[in-house]
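Structure, all three chains, one model.
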Amino acid sequence: MKLGAKQENTSALVEELNRVSAENKKLTEMLTMMCENYNSLRNQLAEYMNKNPVEKELSPSKKRKSESSNNNSNNIITTNGNSESSSTDEESCKKPREEEPIKAKVWKTCVRTEATDTSLIVKDGYQWRKYGQKVTRDNPSPRAYFKCSFAPSCPVKKKVQRSVDDQSILVATYEGEHNHPQPSQMEATSGQNRGMALSSVPCSTNSISSSVGPNITLDFTKPKSGNDNTKSAKPARTESPDVRKFLVDQMASSLTKDPNFTAALAAAISGRIYQQKSS
DNA sequence: CGCTTTTGACCAGCGC
DNA sequence: GCGCTGGTCAAAAGCG
């Protein structure tokens, strides 16, 4: 008696598992589609921005203000086709104030590193000098402050801190704009910095940041760069299955943080369960 | 020796 | 006004 009931239960569970797997696959496909649409839209935007450059005044105004303006950066700009959302929560978890004036060109990048790597180094092709480190209240990990040391007159600053959610992700916040070419490009590719020519990123995203501060996610730990042509604002569509999987994962994590999406998902799942029960 | 990093002190903005 | 906090400074230490 018990055995039969158990077997029935198991088969039901297996069936349920299969159904969930199928649904998961479907959702993954949807995410991939969304991602492709997003990329094409972004490319269109980049082209549009290239044709219609927006002049934006860079003024290193009051520190707190520029920081808070960063809170508006809820959209994600990706390079190398990777996206990251979990790491942007550090500040976006605070309710973004509406109609906040944008005062400085600020953008973020999220870099996945080895979790054991304790150094707060984000290799982006520029030379940085560390001038401070602080432990902030909202994050137990220390935040490092860097200035661009390649040109003494370069006003660009960078803050690097580990993500609260994922210790393997470094969140680098850039402020300002480089007034000099990228050192790694001048030195004609030292190898390690290749494929991460970020210099074009600020140019392509700053215009966007005039409305909202974009987040840029890079995964420098994956050696599959191969895109020496990242100079272009358009990412080369040469994503390997690994990259695509990572991308999908990140999209998924992004969506799961969206209350609307989770609500819709919950409704869909509960609807299916209810459907099964009633049948 | 010169450059970079570390780290405690200091300053300024913000909220109460 | 006061305390908290983030950002910066600058002296000391470390490193090549």
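Residues 17 and 101 of chain A are 49 Å apart (CA to CA).
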